[in-house]
Structure to design on (192 residues):
């Protein structure tokens, strides 16, 4: 799995820059919807954002409003969000490090719903398995994303760019690790 960081970032950047406005606006909508709904819609909005990335990487149409297009998976995505929130809260109460480890293990929970229509428990198990099987390269990706987002957080509106970019990077990593495709052109060719 050498090159997961460089190849995923390179591929994610190509994906992001082609539709940067779409991803930025979709990320903003996801944040607004999550806040207004008191995070009840955070899970479905995450799945919707991931689905936008998935579709655009295949050359399919997508719009900002598609963030809310994952309402058909509300039960799974809300259930996964609740399990993730409760698990994170419990592990953070124990110590910070177990909480961070739990959050990292759940990094691909919403991807399992967007790509494979998994239920709440199944998607968490799938994310745990994927992350533990690829722990070292993913740890490098997670640290790189954390550094980028910390730097961006020190600049006014910096996270406006890095939040959606980070989600694109994680989606590209998910596709690579699951063998769903390794480049935009390959994904577009396979959809044709």
């Amino acid at each position: 799995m050498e090159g997961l960081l460089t190849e995923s970032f390179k591929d994610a950047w190509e994906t992001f820059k082609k539709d940067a406005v779409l991803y930025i606006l979709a990320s903003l909508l996801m944040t607004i919807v999550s806040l207004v709904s008191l995070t009840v819609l955070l899970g479905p909005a995450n799945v919707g954002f991931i689905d936008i990335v998935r579709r655009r990487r295949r050359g399919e149409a997508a719009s900002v409003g598609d963030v809310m297009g994952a309402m058909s998976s509300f039960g799974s995505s809300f259930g996964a969000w609740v399990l993730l929130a409760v698990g994170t809260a419990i592990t953070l109460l124990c110590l910070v490090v177990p909480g961070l480890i739990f959050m990292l293990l759940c990094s691909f929970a919403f991807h399992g719903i967007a790509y494979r229509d998994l239920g709440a428990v199944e998607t968490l198990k799938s994310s745990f398995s994927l992350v533990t099987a690829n722990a070292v390269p993913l740890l490098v990706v997670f640290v790189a994303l954390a550094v980028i987002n910390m730097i961006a957080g020190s600049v006014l509106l910096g996270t406006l760019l890095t939040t959606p970019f980070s989600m694109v990077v994680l989606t590209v990593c998910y596709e690579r690790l699951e063998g769903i495709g390794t480049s935009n052109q390959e994904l577009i060719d396979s959809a044709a």
